[in-house]
């Protein structure tokens, strides 16, 4: 039996640098990887706060706050960090910085020159970038694509011709979409995509989910041409599984606040029934 044929299959992402690329880096580790970037004199690296693992003695570290026109106010409103960490090599010799992935997954080195100089990524996907890449937060302009949660409202846009490093949970695949080719994916599984892709959210039935429960799996329709990076294990899905396993192992009111509400409703309904029966008996 012949194997199925795919014209544009999902492929493991393999970094291919251009001939003029000068950023030296090394990715080590398996499940929780560490990125080491070499910086020459007077070069800098912009990273996500709290991701630094180690650095050489000639490196200086400082916090850089996002300006208002880059979406800093929106990130502050939705509980996101409004600062970034900047590492600067002030010495004459080469230095290095070790950046650790914040959760189990894969670190993706992306040369923006290979993607037209622009890339959209989720708020938790950006890890760090070099001098030639600017990071700005954009608000989704289409109201139908706005959902509660900063990950769905805010997207980070990377611009420039340099190197950016993203992180995706679990395994990361890339899909090259042909013109007018359409795929439907879980919106949380999208790590990044090119700006040429048409992105539309498919809203689930909120009333049905509120009554019968279930996970809020928000799907997105992507129309080519372009490239999209897909992760198999988003961080929020991993955290939900950990929280649910804790609730099963040792349920408590803190782990399951709905249980407290159900107990209150039970006693309230019992009280109403008893009072009603007493009133009807007296009548």
From TrEMBL:
Pfam families: AIM24. InterPro entries: AIM24, AIM24_sf, Trp_RNA-bd_attenuator-like_dom. It comes from the Eukaryota. Gene3D superfamilies: Mitochondrial biogenesis AIM24. Keywords: Membrane, Transmembrane, Transmembrane helix. The chain crosses the membrane at residues 259-280. The keyword Lyase does not apply. This is Altered inheritance of mitochondria protein 24, mitochondrial. It comes from Miscanthus lutarioriparius.
